[in-house]
Design brief:
By secondary structure, this protein is an alpha/beta fold. Helices cover 17% and strands 26% of the residues. The strands form eleven sheets. It has an eight-stranded parallel beta sheet with strand order 1-17-14-11-2-3-6-7, sandwiched between helices. An eight-stranded mixed beta sheet has the order 19-18-24-29-34-35-36-37. Strands 15-12-13-16 form a four-stranded mixed beta sheet.
Length: 541
């Protein structure tokens, strides 16, 4: 039976050098109060130290978080532990280097202090595909040797490229290239975890954990099972306690026999449902929110790109929307009144409804179903999606796309590699140039001031999507506000140009390579550049 302890007591249970597993996305599943106690213990005593941190998704808040808490919208208390941007895994770096010695995650960008330590080679940093890490927990829990998959071939996680290493001091071989029945695969070996640091909403007296208010039913069970079966300890932070045998058995997501210790948070600020919301009941299925309450996008280049991406949808599609600009496609579909024609999803396990963009990406308004990310990545890896839309960091002449490392800026791939390598239709969305000033309206696009960041370059700094490894039958588009490109015979080919632009001056002169030009080069639909559209229904038919 689980023992109920304080966060400070939990921090003392973690041995030096332990491998610590996390589960969640953003602030969903994040045990904020325990993390702060671990940080404080390290600052005061030097222990625990040298931890090996393993996480599947981004765990942080990017400097977001609204200024309210709870239903009464009372002001959120401000202070060193509530300031925007310092929640999440970044807590582990606030007391200086030494607490974390190794860090493996699909997405590291929102843990700012740890990223800074990684840049300075004060800890080893590795990034792997999100679905790989999340499902590797199941392999560990079942005492299987690891995960065998094609996900990651040709990208920076391929050992022939960078092997997932994100900085100079990262030397471990955490992925292997193998030949299985005459085909190339990547093998991700299992490891031995020592501690699970998790969060739920409610714990009963027997330690059974409910995710009642969580928007994401994260991989907490898989992590807890892996740690427990390897002889480690499982610590879970919750907001509420309940009498034993009062929770619905179907609501239990982590059985009490897998839980060693429970920490009831003293402050609700330690249990935010998402980065931007303490609790949005439309995320967790407690209410269905009128979709008219979701504000449409203003008319600008972002909306143009999202509209053009939406034109690729077909009635009945199951689509995945990535973080950043792609997530705003949901607002376009909603504004056009077509959420009942398209099933939108995110890799966190949201199916249906309207996916939220930042600051609460991973959640969805009025989801039809919420499954675990383990199950969602099984669906994705098996080709169950019809289409995905993901972001553009930088793209090169071979169609490679880099969103994981920009110079010294470390981000990681998230689910980008898993999703882009197995989905039959892939759209990459982003502006052609960064920091440009443009004018949208009247059915055309006007460049007011040219940008300073070139996104279409001769060679990307890191390969997150490999154009060379793209299957021949995979349709790949790159949609910007100025032009649309298509990967044809593994060559970047310009197929559309925005109305009002000059091909040479506004597009080709701002690219680090010369693309193929389609003999059937078209003008993008001028209606995309007007205040009101109303044309999506005709396209998705």
């Amino acid at each position: 039976m689980a023992k109920f302890i304080t966060a400070a007591e939990a921090a003392k249970l973690i041995p030096d050098g332990a491998t610590v597993g996390l589960a969640g996305m953003g602030l969903s599943g994040w045990a904020e109060e325990i993390a702060c106690a671990i940080r404080d213990s390290f600052a005061e005593t030097g222990h625990p130290c040298g931890l090996n941190l393993k996480q599947g998704s981004a765990m942080g808040d990017w400097g977001y978080g609204n200024a309210f808490i709870g239903w009464d919208r009372s002001p959120r208390p401000e202070g060193p532990d509530t300031a925007h941007g310092n929640r999440g895994a970044t807590r582990f770096g606030e007391a200086g280097p030494g607490l974390i010695s190794k860090w493996t995650s699909a997405h590291v960008g929102s843990a700012f202090t740890l990223c800074d330590q990684a840049r300075k080679n004060q800890l080893e940093c590795y990034c792997l595909p999100q679905g790989v890490i999340i499902n590797l927990w199941r392999e560990i829990g079942a005492h299987r040797p690891g995960l065998l998959t094609k996900v990651g071939l040709g990208t920076f996680v391929d050992p022939r490229v960078e092997g997932g290493r994100m900085n100079e001091c990262a030397k471990d071989e955490i992925v292997k290239l193998v030949n299985f029945e005459g085909e190339e695969y990547l093998f991700y070996p299992a490891f031995k975890p020592d501690v699970a640091l998790l969060r739920g909403t409610i714990a009963d007296e027997n330690g059974n954990i409910s995710f009642a208010h969580e928007s994401v039913i994260n991989e907490g069970f898989a992590v807890a099972n892996a740690v427990k079966n390897c002889g480690g300890i499982v610590i879970v932070q919750v907001e509420y306690l309940a009498k034993k045998e009062t929770l619905n058995p179907k609501d239990i997501k982590i059985p009490g026999n897998l839980v060693d210790y429970v920490v009831q948070a003293r402050d609700p600020k330690s249990c935010w449902q998402a980065e931007g919301d303490y609790w949005e009941p439309a995320f967790s299925g407690h209410i269905r929110k009128p979709l008219t309450a979701i504000a449409p996008l203003p008319l600008d280049e972002r909306k143009v790109i999202c509209r053009r991406c939406a034109m690729e949808l077909k009635k009945g599609d199951l689509i995945n929307l990535g973080v950043g600009m792609p997530a705003d496609i949901a607002k376009v579909v909603n504004e056009e009144g077509l959420t009942d024609r398209i099933t939108m999803s995110t890799e966190s396990g949201m199916v249906g409804g309207v996916p939220s963009a930042r600051p609460s990406f991973g959640s969805a308004y009025n989801p039809e179903a919420i499954i675990t990310p383990n199950e969602m990545f099984d669906l994705i890896s098996g080709g169950g999606l019809d289409m995905t839309c993901l972001g553009i960091g930088e793209v090169d002449k071979d169609g490679n796309n880099n969103v994981s490392r920009m110079g010294s800026r470390l981000t990681g791939p998230g689910g980008f590699i898993d999703i882009s390598s197995t989905t039959p239709k892939v759209i990459f969305a982003g502006t052609l140039m960064g920091k440009a000033k443009v004018k949208v309206g009247g059915g055309k696009l006007e460049i007011l001031e040219e940008g300073t960041i070139r996104k279409f370059v001769d060679k990307v700094g890191q390969i997150t999507f490999s154009g060379r490894y793209a299957p021949d039958d995979q349709e790949v588009l790159y949609i910007t506000e100025r032009a649309v490109f298509k990967l044809i015979d593994h060559k970047m080919t310009l197929i559309e140009i925005a109305p009002g632009l000059d091909l040479e001056k506004d597009i080709l002169a701002n690219m680090g390579f010369t693309p193929e030009i389609s003999p059937e080069l078209k003008t993008m639909d001028p209606a995309l550049f007007c205040e009101t559209w109303g044309g999506l229904n005709e396209y998705i038919k």
